């Protein structure tokens, strides 16, 4: 009995269509469209990955909006300040670096508010007190907006990790710089503000 020797030749599918430009073009178009379709169908909306929450605030992204009561009555909404350069500064009265940098913030505000600068100092009232915040504002003669984060919602949204934390927001509501901790020098604050105010 004779056995056939195994063949070393592999059988490849007929790829003759590669030599025909029209067929090759049609094939690549179908593959490309299939890839785009798969990408679209398998994509997950941002809301599904963040459970509808705002992504962590960082440079180059929109500043999460919020509305808070002001120390001197009334309310403020961050999006209502659109068109101005806004410094969002999270602070507490018992925080030594906060105390150290507040006079510099006040001086920069006084020098630039007519050019379109607003400072929104968000007191972390949930770990401070309104009375302490009011005394702090009187002691330093603060003239900018002081908002009260009574529930800690804004601090959580802005993922507060250190006091003070400062966000420099441009006229379109985009965060352009984040500084964790402090105290910031007047030069640091003014330089960041000048970049956002430009020639205005």
**Shape designation:** elongated
Low-confidence stretches: 42-54
Helical segment count: 6
Strand content: 15-25%
Widest sheet, order of strands: 2-1-5-4-3-6-7
* Main beta-sheet strand count, sense and barrel state: 7 strands, mixed
Distance between the termini: 99 Å
Please provide a written account of the structure.
By secondary structure, the chain is of the alpha/beta class. It is built from 6 helices and 7 strands, in the order ααβββαβαβαββα. Strands 2-1-5-4-3-6-7 form a 7-stranded mixed β-sheet, with helices on one face. α4 links the parallel β4 and β5. α3 crosses α6. The longest helix is centred in the first third of the chain and has 22 residues, at 21-42. It starts with 20 loop residues before the first helix and ends with a helix.
Concise structural overview:
This protein is α/β, with parallel strands linked by helices and 200 residues long.
Keywords:
7-stranded mixed beta sheet; elongated; 200 residues; alpha/beta
């Amino acid at each position: 009995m004779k056995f056939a020797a195994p063949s070393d030749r592999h059988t490849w599918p007929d790829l003759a269509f590669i030599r025909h430009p029209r067929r090759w073009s049609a094939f690549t178009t179908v593959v490309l469209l299939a890839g785009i379709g798969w990408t679209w169908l398998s994509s997950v909306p941002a809301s599904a990955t963040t459970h509808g929450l705002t992504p962590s605030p960082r440079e180059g992204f929109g500043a999460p909006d919020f509305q808070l009561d002001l120390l001197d009555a009334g309310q403020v909404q961050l999006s209502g300040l659109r068109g101005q350069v806004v410094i969002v500064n999270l602070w507490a009265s018992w925080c030594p670096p906060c105390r150290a940098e507040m006079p510099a913030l006040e001086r920069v505000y006084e020098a630039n508010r007519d050019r379109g600068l607003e400072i929104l100092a968000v007191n972390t009232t949930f770990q401070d007190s309104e009375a302490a915040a009011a005394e702090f504002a009187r002691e330093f003669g603060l003239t900018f907006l002081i908002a009260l984060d009574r529930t800690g919602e804004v601090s959580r949204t802005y993922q507060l990790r250190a006091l003070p934390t400062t966000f420099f927001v441009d006229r379109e509501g985009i965060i352009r710089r984040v500084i964790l901790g402090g105290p910031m020098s007047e030069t640091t604050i003014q330089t960041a503000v000048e970049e956002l105010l430009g020639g205005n």
